[in-house]
């Protein structure tokens, strides 16, 4: 939530000032009740725990078991009311901003990728799917003889690799340098009954076009 009032730079100081003022008022209230109690023993002396409880009650707009008197406690209540208003407003604004987010990017299916003429490559064991096989036969998808060849194309050209994700990752962790995996970004192909994945280089322009990451 970049526009949330909780984290705006312009409101950081406001929250800090309100906390400081509440702290100063709490100290003044504690000193005031202690001095009044010394002058007039019948006057209630508020210990720190009760002062803190009153501050929290003022922020939460709840009643307390004692009714304080004086300017400092009333000011605390007004500031607490203002803090509560900001919290409620901020929560409502946060929820509204989340609900207002528009997801313009639509996840592309395999057919969508084919129609946009992205350069695709796959491996032999991925051709068991009839849809993939027909696309390979029509030369819309490049067929690689093994994962090594597929990985080379993905890392060295603007190619989208297509393979079973677990098999591809297993190959990277056993046959290749593990750092190679960090250069790739995987994404499950939507609307597919099998566990498949697209793999592209992290710097590939296809990364943004696929809208997966």
From TrEMBL:
Annotated Ionotropic glutamate receptor C-terminal domain residues: 14-150
Q: Does the keyword Transmembrane apply?
A: yes
Q: Name one GO molecular function term.
A: ligand-gated monoatomic ion channel activity
| Entry keyword annotation includes Metal-binding | no
The portions of this protein that span the membrane are: 14-33, 77-101
Q: Pfam families annotated for this entry?
A: Lig_chan
Sorted UniProt keywords: Membrane, Transmembrane, Transmembrane helix
Q: Name one GO cellular component term.
A: membrane
* Family listed: Belongs to the glutamate-gated ion channel (TC 1.A.10.1) family.
The protein in question is named Ionotropic glutamate receptor C-terminal domain-containing protein
Q: Which organism is it from?
A: Clastoptera arizonana
């Amino acid at each position: 939530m970049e526009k949330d009032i909780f984290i705006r730079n312009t409101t950081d100081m406001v929250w800090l000032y309100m906390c400081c003022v509440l702290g100063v008022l709490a100290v003044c209230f504690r000193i005031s009740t202690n001095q009044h109690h010394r002058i007039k023993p019948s006057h209630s002396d508020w210990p720190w725990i009760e002062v803190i409880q009153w501050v929290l009650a003022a922020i939460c707009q709840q009643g307390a078991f004692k009714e304080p008197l004086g300017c400092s406690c009333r000011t605390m209540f007004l500031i607490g009311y203002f803090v509560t208003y900001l919290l409620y407003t901020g929560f409502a604004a946060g929820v509204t901003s989340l609900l207002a987010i528009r997801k313009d990017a639509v996840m592309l299916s395999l057919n969508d990728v084919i129609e946009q003429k992205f350069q695709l490559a796959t491996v032999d064991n991925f051709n068991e799917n009839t849809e993939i096989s027909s696309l390979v036969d029509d030369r819309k998808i490049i067929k690689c003889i093994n994962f090594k060849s597929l990985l080379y194309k993905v890392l060295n050209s603007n190619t989208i690799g297509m393979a079973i994700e677990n098999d591809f990752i297993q190959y990277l962790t056993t046959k290749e340098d593990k750092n190679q995996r960090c250069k790739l970004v995987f994404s499950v192909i939507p609307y597919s009954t099998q566990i498949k994945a697209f793999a592209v280089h992290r710097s590939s322009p296809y990364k943004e076009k696929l809208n997966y990451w």
